[in-house]
Specification:
Length: 88
């Protein structure tokens, strides 16, 4: 029963990561397309993408979800860290 729950959680994390990556790619493409229509230089387009707060937030959310994936796929690492705290 627990394994089924973990699998569902892993799938939900995978789906969320994929959706966030797709959204990030779409947003990047939209910024690029609009900037090109305005004849903005490639350097300024890249700077706009790098500085875009929404893209930064998406990247951070993806990192958090990937860390959660790692915790689920290797729960023994988490137990070891907690065990060290209780042994002191």
């Amino acid at each position: 029963m627990i394994q089924e729950t973990l699998k569902a959680s892993q799938k939900e994390l995978n789906d969320s990561i994929e959706e966030l990556r797709n959204y990030s790619n779409r947003l990047t493409k939209e910024i690029t397309t609009m900037s090109q229509k305005l004849r903005i230089s490639k350097e300024k387009i890249q700077a706009s993408i790098n500085e875009n707060l929404e893209l930064k937030n998406i990247a951070e959310a993806i990192k958090v979800l990937i860390n959660e994936q790692k915790k689920i796929s290797n729960p023994n690492n988490n137990l070891g860290a907690n065990q060290d705290l209780t042994d002191s």
